[in-house]
Amino acid sequence: MPLELRHVTPDGLPDVRAAILEIHAEVRHRDFGMTREFHSVERFDERLSAYASRPGWAAVLGYEEGRPVGFCFGMTLAADTRWWSSMIPPVADDLVREDGRRTAALNEIVVRRPWRGRGVARRIHDTWLERRREERVTLLVDPAAGEGAVQAVYEGWGYAKVGEQQPFPDSPRFAALVRPVWEPSSM
């Protein structure tokens, strides 16, 4: 079946919010057993609303036969972002310098089980990146996810670990990864 990819801006979030929350609950809770309060649907929905209120927020949802199968979303880091403030240990100033145009943060990428291992996550990711104008993209990944396999996938997509951070008191300690928005081979 062909995968249909749809771009969503903040104005379109009300139309896809239920699908995003449903996929989140299915994948994070049922598939991966992530049941800590940090991963609750309510907390995720609060973060979704906060991210979507920031400049440059956009999402891509993948559909097959009209059924949502995965999504990703993120935004541009503002000049006064706190994104890098919880790095462990603190990193060089030139890495964390932001000007409101330098870095896109990929906040979430989630794909339902039947569509994993088929390149769907990569297509959703790359489609989201197609419209980004920042020079680089960052994401956080729980290094324990999939016993390290999830981080390895991102590293295979060109991301490199620059440190670790714990952005919320009840969140996991994440690996912080960065890569150019456009890989040199795709230019």
UniProtKB/TrEMBL annotation:
Gene3D superfamilies given in the database record: 3.40.630.30
Signal peptide start and end residues: none
Residue ranges occupied by any N-acetyltransferase domain in the UniProt entry: 3-184
Pfam families in the cross-refs: Acetyltransf_1 (PF00583)
Annotated protein name in UniProt: Acetyltransferase
